[in-house]
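Subject: for your reference before the review

Hello V.,

The reviewers asked for a structural picture of the protein, and I figured it would be easier to keep everything in one thread rather than splitting it across files. Below is the amino acid sequence we used in the manuscript, unchanged from the supplementary table.
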Amino acid sequence: MEVQVRGAPRELRRAKVAELVGDQVPNSPEATPERLRELQQHARALKDAVKVLEDRLGHERTAASVIVCNQVREEHSRRARETCLKLLELHAAMLAYAELVDALNAEDIAWSYLGPAQLLALGNPRDNSLDWRFTSGKWSRPDMDVTELPQALR
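And here is what came back from the structure prediction:
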């Protein structure tokens, strides 16, 4: 009887060596096509179980998020409102700057060496289609009253 040991997987090889030298062979199932199918089915079941657990985890995360959001709602509202008001101040400052630039340009003054040629990092303050509208009714902030908005942004 010829035993092929060299190409066998490590555990199978160890079991075969133990058998040949008379040691107790660990009780492990033989590698058969049926065993392979059984293991493949088990692997699919494990993947399905992981998917079910991920779905459950997602639902629990959503439920926990609702609880946390309810706990921080007032602070979130306060900070969002404060941010909106500061951005409205920035908008007003950018409009004032644009008026100065317009006055200099109207007099054909070469003023660009003074500093930034245009402060348009947040867009043109005269363009109401830009995100200055985030504070307006188009992006409703329940914590802001419409009267707090400049007329041009309402």
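For the response letter, the relevant points are probably these. The chain has two helices and no strands. The mean pLDDT is 79.

Happy to draft the paragraph if you're swamped.

O.
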